[in-house]
Every structure is written in C-alpha cells, then in structure tokens.
C-alpha cells in the first residue's frame, strides 16, 4: 500500500562526488532548518525550566503541547520535504480504506539532488536525538512518580516518534524491507554465534 519508488538517501546524505561537496555543504533552506530544531528544542527547554519559570502546571502543559504540535506539523509537512526530499502522509481511497504513503524525491535527469549534506545532518540529528530525550523524560517522570507530567512526556514521545518512524519508512521503503532488514541482522548474529560460539560465552 506504500510507495516503494524510493531514492537511496543515506541518513546523512553524503555526496559521492567530491567536486560538489563544498556546494552540498551549504544550507539552502535556512528558515526550514531553523524551525526544524526550534519547536522541538523549545519544547524540551520549556519542560526542563517550566517549574522555575511558573507554578502553573496548566500553562506549562499547554505551552509544551502547542510546541510539540507545531513541531509535528512543520517536520511532517515542510522540513522533511525541503531538507531531505522525503514525505509521508495518510490518505483514504474510494473504498474507505486508509493508506499510508511514504515517498522520497527522485533523482533528477542530471543525477543531482537538491538537498545538501549540512541540511541532511541537521534534519536527521534533530529527528533522532529529540525523541530519545523524551523517552528519557518519560522514564524519569515514571520513576520519580511525577504522574502529572506523564501525559506531557508521552505526547512528546508519540508525536516526535511518529515523525521518526515515518521518515525511516521513507528511507528504507516498505514494511517488507523493514522486516527483511531485521531478519538479515538476526541471521548474521546467529551465524556469527554458530561460527564463533566461544565469543558469546562469559570469560
């Protein structure tokens, strides 16, 4: 049900052509690069400092959720398409069935890509790092019994994790590709254990 006509885009989009590397390192969309990090970093900063800035939990919660929602919309609809040429969305067909579409920008006739290496690094670094931080916040809130903050951190994990999952699907292709990648990895680990059984035994 997903689009499998995927361009081979590396996570950091390194260009093999050395002569174009200086050109590829330029940030072509500075506004998109700024807002790709602004909303998600602002949500984390507000979460860390809100108890020092105000005693109103409702104000902090609303501010963080608004920032997370703006980040979700901006990353899903704008920055992913401009910075790395990836996009994903959901559509309902004529039969009423919901379909998830994952696409990557096709290489042009000259074989060039419009995304730069610097923008790709910014995109993937922000996309991967921030959900991991929210997962840490979730465990911290759980183990410190800050139950009222669980809804906020779970919202951060869900919204930013959804974008991360969607763009990874754009990168690797269909669900079948994800399954085959996991199967290949587990197969290699099994073969390594069979060939070198002593490697896995404690010393």
TrEMBL record:
Main localization category: membrane
Record GO cellular component, one term: Golgi membrane
Membrane topology: Multi-pass membrane protein
Location in or out of the cell: Membrane
One example of a Gene Ontology biological process annotation: protein secretion
Residue ranges crossing the lipid bilayer per the database entry: 30-49, 55-75, 122-143, 149-168
Keyword list, A-Z: Membrane, Transmembrane, Transmembrane helix
Tagged with keyword Manganese: no
Domain of life: Eukaryota
Family: Belongs to the TVP23 family.
Protein name listed in UniProt: Golgi apparatus membrane protein TVP23 homolog
Species of origin: Chunga burmeisteri (Black-legged seriema)
Gene: Tvp23b
